[in-house]
Amino acid sequence: VQLQASGGGSVQPGGSLRLSCVVSGISLRWHDIGWFRQAPGKQREGVACISNGEPSTYYADSVKGRFTISRNSYKNTVYLQMNNLKPEDTAVYYCNARSGSFNFWGQGTKVTVSS
Q1: 24-30 long-range contacts, Cβ below 8 Å, gap at least 24?
Q2: d(C-alpha 110, C-alpha 45), whole Å
Q3: Which of 17, 23, 72, 109 is geometrically suited to a Cys-Cys bond with 5, CB 3.0 to 4.6 A?
Q4: Among 45, 48, 115, 59, which residue's Cα sits nearest to residue 87?
């Protein structure tokens, strides 16, 4: 199983980034995929999640209306479109796959929002 996150970078406040999580070894049809982030000195927190099957989505209050999670089942990839980025969005972003007792983390991709 691999979860390969990419798309991070440095942007100014108000900018946009799209993160990608390429999933291999498991199917999006059977696993919920979530994006989490961890800022320096803070605990890891959930940002957004898309469920398996007929997908439903969840967003943390801090990103509602700015971030959109989506998936392409043919590419086995989950995206996180991040708009109107704020300095407080600065963190390392991780994707996570979960189903029952299965819980797998990918490596992170760093997002820095600064003027």
Answers
A1: 24/76, 25/1, 26/1, 26/97, 26/99, 26/102, 26/104, 27/76, 28/52, 28/71, 28/73, 28/76, 28/78, 29/53, 29/73, 30/99
A2: 15
A3: 109
A4: 115
Which of 9-18, 20-29, 62-71, 84-93 is the least confident region?
A: 20-29
- One-letter identity of residue 74: Y
Token readout for 68 is 């959109």
User: 53: pLDDT confidence band, cut at 50, 70 and 90?
Assistant: confident
Q: Where are the alpha helices (DSSP H) in the chain?
A: none
Q: Quote the tokens at residue 100.
A: 């029952």
